[in-house]
Every structure is written in C-alpha cells, then in structure tokens.
Amino acid sequence: MELRVSDRVPELTALLSVVSLAAVFGAVGGVVPASLLPRAPDAVVNAIPHINAVLSTTALVTIPLAVRAARRGRIGRHRALMVTTLGLFAAFLACYLYRLTLRGTTAFPGPDAVYQYVYLPTLGVHILLAIACVPLLYYVALLALTRPIPAIRDSLHPRVGRVAASLWFISFLLGDVVYLLLYVVY
C-alpha cells in the first residue's frame, strides 16, 4: 500500500500545527533557554520589532494581491505571492520567537485605560487569529503543494483559503496596531 502526502493532508496539518504551536508556546512560556540561542548584538535584537512591523505590513500587501491574482485566474502569480507571504510570516515568527526567548515580553508603556480597553483586546484577538491561522494555512498550503492545479480548484483549498487569507490579513493588521501602540504611540 502506497502512502501519499496528498492522502494525508488533514493528518499532516494536525501534526505540523501541534509541533508549530508547541514551539511558539514553548518560547512564550520560557521553556527554551536563552543560553541555547546564538546571541546577536543588542542593536539587532532591538531592531526586531521594527523589522517585524515591516514584514507584517508587507504581508498586508501580498495577501490581497494574492487573492486578487487567484480571482483573476493568475495561479502562478497567486502561488508566488502566497509563498512570499509564508516566507514573510516565517521570518516574522523566527525573529519574534528569537527576541521573545532572549528578552521576554514587552511591557505596555501607555496609560492603564488604553492598556485595558484597547491594547489587551487588540493583542488578544491578534493572538487568537494567529493561532487559528496555523492549521488553516498548513491545510491550504498542503492542498496546493500536493495536487495538480485543476484538482486544487475542486478541493477545499479555495473555500478554506478565503477564510485563512481573511483571518491572516486581520491578524497581521492587528499585529501592526499592537506594534504602533508599543513602539510608536507610547
């Protein structure tokens, strides 16, 4: 009996999602010792939030362009833009987790009322959407990578992809709002 990746997309999605989220929660929870990571100069570590804001903002451009390309039947362009967005996300996540492991979370410097009624709800929704996006993104990416283009159109990829792209876009947007509140406004 031959096992093919295309026959195991839900199982692989679940496995990759669990491993990925475990890595994120491990970094957030301080399970990964900072001593295991190579130490970048302080200027580089301090620049990570700003680099991540650029990565997020760039993704806010590539996601709608990719959706538009798919709607126009420009599948090669759609694929290139989505692979680019996945690369932006991977770079963002690597930088974020690196800085988080070395420095921990960043305290909100603004007024308590803004923290309680603006920052925390924005951050909470951003985090929930980011977590929800992980399995959706793995699922649509695995469907796209394991099927010929005509079969992708007949799979759940278009339907799940619309949801994933929308949630991903909102998550990136809210991430930029969190950045602005932490590093620009206050």
UniProtKB/TrEMBL annotation:
Highest taxon in the source lineage: Archaea
CC terms in the record's Gene Ontology section: membrane
GO biological process, one term: respiratory electron transport chain
InterPro entries tied to this protein: Cyt_c_oxidase_su3_a-hlx, DUF420
Coiled coil: none
Record-annotated membrane-spanning stretches: 12-35, 47-67, 79-99, 119-145, 166-185
Pfam family, one: DUF420
Keywords: Membrane, Transmembrane, Transmembrane helix
GO molecular function: cytochrome-c oxidase activity
Protein's name in the database: DUF420 domain-containing protein
Species for this entry: Halobellus salinus
